[in-house]
From TrEMBL:
Lineage: Bacteria, Bacillati, Mycoplasmatota, Mollicutes, Entomoplasmatales
Name assigned to this protein: Glycerol-3-phosphate dehydrogenase [NAD(P)+]
SUPFAM superfamilies reported for this sequence: 6-phosphogluconate dehydrogenase C-terminal domain-like, NAD(P)-binding Rossmann-fold domains
Binding site for NAD(+): 9-14, 143, 258
Pathway per the UniProt entry: Membrane lipid metabolism; glycerophospholipid metabolism
GO molecular function term, any single one: glycerol-3-phosphate dehydrogenase (NADP+) activity
Length: 329
């Protein structure tokens, strides 16, 4: 059955998911803060800031009017980066007037409480009494490929598995396949932390260490992610699904990944500081690396990989420290 869905954010992923949902026959309204993107979607049925000449589903509407965008919403997809969530949630708390299911796609960790992003979102919206349910959507899904309607599998994770199944039905179409998971901590912690491993993988590959080293890093990284996710109640069984292993393999191997590309820039410029200054695209792994280190401290977890990545990104340690930490005796 046709659902009314609002997507917050007219960036790469919000737009890709709008296409998925509209192709399924849902009514999709996007809310954006960038006029050029909103107009491009509404008038030209394109979002050329991200997808050049790709034609989007013509039924997608876009607006800069937040209140109007929420009017009919039954489901709200949060399609903004983690750092934008506080302001989006503040606005939602103010303007929500009917019950909605929230589907978050931001890959991050709550920096303030050093805790799950889902907990932060739920705790912020619960007092409104309009939060009907919460899910996270995670998996190996580069936005441009999703927008081009290339086959993609993701997990919809929720503490309420029946809700996860319902939301999977809302998203699944002939090229986008959503599978339910009841392990929200595994999916969301892994979705966030894999971006740091992707930066490390970009560094390893740009250093010319070879495919063996690349695969070894991913194996090591997945184990380190599990060690940290366990703190939040993640189950080991969940570490072979799309949101965990799948997204790590993709993001840490694809030249289309911004985190991986940023890792390569660090080695090219021989400085994470310089790479950060030159980087004009969203790289969630940078912020996540800092919170990951707060988790290590708070919960007394050891991780050589996350520690050295913090030193490289935030303490100006030379990029070669990664190789010394992982590939020397
Ligand atoms: N791109 C991808 O392949 C995938 C991304 N994700 C995740 O999705 C999240 C969003 O990423 P992505 O779409 O790529 O990011 P982008 O940088 O492409 O787009 C983010 C969009 O959100 C806008 N925005 C920022 N603040 C607000 C706000 N307060 N209200 C409304 N819109 C706002 C930005 O505007 P402005 O430019 O002005 O800041 C921009 O249009 C990230 O957490 C990412 O990890 C998940 C899977 C795949
Ligand atoms: O999370 C992603 C794919 O699943 C997108 O990765 P990047 O943010 O590194 O481009």
């Amino acid at each position: 059955m046709q659902k009314n869905i609002t997507i917050i954010g007219t960036g790469a992923y919000g737009t890709a998911l709008a296409n998925v949902l509209a192709d399924k026959g849902n009514n999709v309204v996007m809310y954006g803060v960038v006029e050029q993107q909103v107009d491009d979607i509404s008038i030209n049925h394109m979002n050329q800031s991200f997808f050049r000449d790709l034609k989007l589903n013509e039924n997608i509407q876009a607006t800069m009017d937040f209140v109007a965008s929420l009017e009919k919403a039954e489901y709200i997809v949060l399609g903004v980066p983690t750092k934008a969530l506080p302001s989006v949630l503040k606005d939602l708390s103010k303007y929500l007037k009917k019950e909605v299911v929230i589907i978050n796609t931001a890959k991050g960790i709550d920096e303030q409480d050093v805790d799950l992003l889902s907990k932060y979102i739920i705790n912020t919206l619960q007092p409104t009494r309009y939060l009907k349910g919460y899910c996270g959507l995670y998996g190996p899904s580069i936005a441009s490929e999703v927008a081009s309607r290339e086959p993609t599998y993701v997990n919809i994770a929720s503490n309420d598995i029946e809700l996860a199944k319902e939301v999977c039905d809302v998203f699944t179409n002939e090229y986008f396949f959503a599978k339910p998971s009841n392990d929200l901590p595994a999916c969301e912690i892994s979705a966030a932390l894999k971006n740091v491993i992707a930066i490390a993988a970009g560094m390893i590959d740009e250093s010319g260490l070879g495919d063996n080293a690349h695969a070894s890093l991913l194996t090591y990284g997945l184990n380190e992610i599990y060690k940290i996710a366990k703190v939040f109640g993640a189950k080991h069984d969940s570490f072979t699904n799309y949101a965990t292993m799948g997204d790590l393999v993709l993001t840490a191997s694809s030249k289309k990944s911004r985190n991986y590309t940023f890792g390569r820039m660090i080695v090219q410029e021989n400085s994470a500081k310089k790479a950060r200054e030159d980087c004009d695209f969203t790289v969630e792994g940078v912020g996540t690396c800092e919170v990951a280190n707060k988790i290590l401290d708070k919960y007394h977890v050891e991780s050589k990989l996350f520690k050295v990545m913090y030193e490289i990104i935030y303490q100006n340690k030379a990029p070669k420290a990664l190789l010394q930490a992982l590939f020397t005796l």
